[in-house]
Write a structure and sequence with these properties.
The chain is built from seven helices and ten strands. It is α/β, with parallel strands linked by helices. It folds into two domains: 105 residues, Cobalt-precorrin-4 Transmethylase, domain 1, CATH 3.40.1010.10; 116 residues, Methyltransferase, Cobalt-precorrin-4 Transmethylase, Domain 2, CATH 3.30.950.10. The strands form two sheets. A five-stranded parallel beta sheet has the order 3-2-4-1-5, sandwiched between helices. A five-stranded mixed beta sheet has the order 6-7-10-8-9. The radius of gyration is 21 Å and the shape is globular. The chain starts with a strand and ends in a 30-residue tail after the last strand.
């Protein structure tokens, strides 16, 4: 069996209980060494084989997995954050299915959630935004034109931008071109939930200057959800009736 395990955003305690148990039981862990907190490997048993996938190709990863399968071993493929977001797991899964290899995916806490927690922020504030966009700037990996930052910015929703810390000046220009005012609140969260986490609050206009010196392992948050104005949630409003509570003005 192969388990794709979400490592969480950084803090070793932010892996799920299920993910932790799989690491403890695994005979082999293939981990994304450039991104995963090495403290997570402390969960591995003493004789567990460890492979840093940052130094491996897809084919090399699958070869290790297949060898483990022949020997009846358990493999944990440890991905940063949640495997479904920029995790490149589909290509691995396709090759496993071609070889009739069983697998399971264990979700994890994404860095966009870890960053919001670090800021004490809520992406879906009533009266501000009810939509969260998870995206990235085009780099060596292209982005469809319909999903360019400029096009997505036209929506005006809360936005979390991955893998783009080295392109902050261009990101700022494209956000403004798409319709965000330059004074829209923004934040750069470097290594969210890690011991050396760094939080920089700024505006879209100030992204490039504020993020000077940060080129990777950071997520950029954009939107008025980082501001101070919003509407009270109806869910806990004393006059709001729902299936579990009658509002103060409900005479039924």
């Amino acid at each position: 069996m192969v388990y794709f395990v979400g490592a969480g955003p950084g803090d070793k305690e932010l892996i799920t209980v299920k993910g932790m148990k799989i690491l403890e039981a695994a005979d082999c862990i293939i981990y994304a060494g450039s991104l995963v907190n090495p403290e997570l490997l402390e969960y591995a048993k003493k004789d567990c084989a460890l492979y840093d996938s940052a130094k491996m190709t897809l084919e090399e990863v699958i070869a290790v997995v297949q060898e483990n399968e022949k020997r009846g071993l358990v493999t944990a493929r440890l991905h940063t954050g949640d495997p479904s977001i920029y995790g490149a797991i589909r290509e691995q899964i396709d090759l496993l299915e071609e070889n009739n290899t069983q697998y399971k995916v264990i979700p994890g806490v994404s860095s966009f959630a870890g960053a919001a927690a670090a800021l004490g922020a809520e992406y879906t504030l009533p009266g501000v935004s009810q939509t969260v966009i998870l995206t990235r700037m085009a780099g060596r990996t292209p982005v469809p034109e319909r999903e360019s930052i400029t096009e997505l910015a036209k929506i005006g929703a809360s936005m979390a931008v991955f893998l783009s810390a080295s392109m902050l000046a261009d990101l700022s220009l494209k956000l403004i071109e798409g319709g965000y005012p330059g004074d829209t609140p923004a934040a750069i969260v470097y290594k969210a939930t890690w011991p050396d986490e760094k939080i920089i609050r700024t505006t879209i206009d100030g992204l490039a200057e504020a993020g000077s010196g940060i080129s990777k392992t950071a997520i950029i948050l954009i939107g008025n959800f980082l501001g101070g104005e919003y509407e009270r949630s109806l869910l806990y409003h004393p006059e709001f009736t729902h299936g579990y509570r009658a509002g103060a003005n409900n005479n039924g």
